[in-house]
Amino acid sequence: MDIITKDTIQDLIENCHGKAVTIYMPTVQTTREIKQNPIRLKNLIADVKNKLNEEEMSNREIESYLAPLSDLIPDEAFWQSQNEGLALFLDKNELRLFHLPERVDEIAIVSNTFHITPLIPICQGEGNYYLLSIAQERPKFYQGSKYELVQIEELNLPESLQKMFDEFFEFHSHLQFHNRSITPNQQMPMDRQSMFFGQGGGDDIDRKAEILNFFHRFDKALMTYLGGSNAPLVMAGLGYLHPLYKQANSYPNLIDEGITKDISQLPEDDIHQLSWALVKNQYQTDVKQALEDYSRLKNKNDETSENLETIVSAAWFKRVHTMFVAKNSFVWGNFSPDDNTVTIDDKHTSSNQDLLDLAAAQTIINGGTVLLISQDKIPGNATAAAILRY
Fold it and tell me: Angle, nearest 10°, between helix axes 6-14 and 355-365?
């Protein structure tokens, strides 16, 4: 599975040159049915050829343009390495493809921009998060999604962050030794010795300050690594570490409720289940809160809209804070920013685009939030609704 982030989507939106071909298709992985994959792609390419014929391109030009896609059809090794779905994005410069963790509906679109809406749930509601495990021996850092959790190996970490991980081992060993030296009951298990930390006293205050200082330096290195990511971050570690880490943390998307135990000895599947439950709950809370905000603002002048023409214009001109988009919905047409007009067509042609996708893409580019949900949950049962900003 390929990791799809907000940056991935933004790159597809901003770096599209010439005629944009977008294909989504489900894929099968079993040996007996694997031949369905190239047949399905061949049929979708045929649909694309029909749409490109509308552009008055010659058959030779069309074959040349679509060659990177056509070359995949006989590639047996490629088809043997599939997940649940496949997304293909072709422009005049390159072919970009992504193996998807869930099945998607067949889509073949020719337009002036790539169609990115099906990627949004993978990026957000079912998408990426980070897990930081402050273990007794050595911290570990993971990247996960609804579908998997993968440890970011030490060799892939930047030098500054790897150095912090190494220092933590020595630092924690020193603290454990120091804690044992002051613990009244030497038979107390190690985790209880750690819990003894925080009972009061001057030495305890000094150790708190020492750990907090370490976490500040650790946070600085971690922020350099995460860059501009907006993915949720889950912290795992013994309970007494959480309030200290929160004091030092500057990453804006640290989930308030962490995993309050040492997970270093747990199977990775169990760690995934524990961390994903927190991320899933956070996303559902965010959707619920956004819908409540919409309901609260609805009666105020011009702060919400269920009118697609209004939403498309607002998204283009950076005025959408949160957009709700109906799953599996399309509204074909065009938008002219020069005179701020929206036209809606009856069907898809190579000269128009999905206006829902356009508005979603512009909302993402301009720092807004896009939530893909079922239409019956969208205010007014509309295909789109938006909380506006000024």
Answer: 110
Burial label for 206, CB within 10 Å (0-12, 13-18, 19+), is exposed
- CA quadruple 379, 383, 387, 390: dihedral positive or negative? negative
pLDDT tens-place string over residues 305-360 = 999 999 999 999 999 999 999 998 999 999 999 999 999 999 998 889 999 999 99
**Burial readout 24-63 (b: 16 or more C-beta within 10 A, e: otherwise):** bbbbbeeeeeeeebbebbeebbeebbebbeeeebeeeebe
Sheet harboring 332-336: ordered strands across? 341-344, 332-336, 353-354
The 10s digit of each residue's pLDDT in 146-204 is: 888 888 875 455 555 556 556 655 655 555 545 544 343 434 444 443 433 444 445 55
Higher-pLDDT residue of 126, 102: 102
Q: CA angle, corner 18, sides to 12 and 20, nearest 5?
A: 50
Q: Which two tokens stand for residue 118?
A: 């099906």
Helix 202-226 vs helix 241-248: crossing angle, to nearest 10: 50
Q: Residue 192 has which token pair?
A: 């209880």
CA distance 183 to 204: 11
Residue 194 identity: S
CB atoms within 10 A of CB 359: 29
**What pTM, to 2 d.p., does this model score?**
0.74
Beta-carbon contacts of 317 under 8 Å, excluding residues fewer than 6 positions away, are 337
* Rounded-to-integer distance, Cα 76 and Cα 34, Å: 9
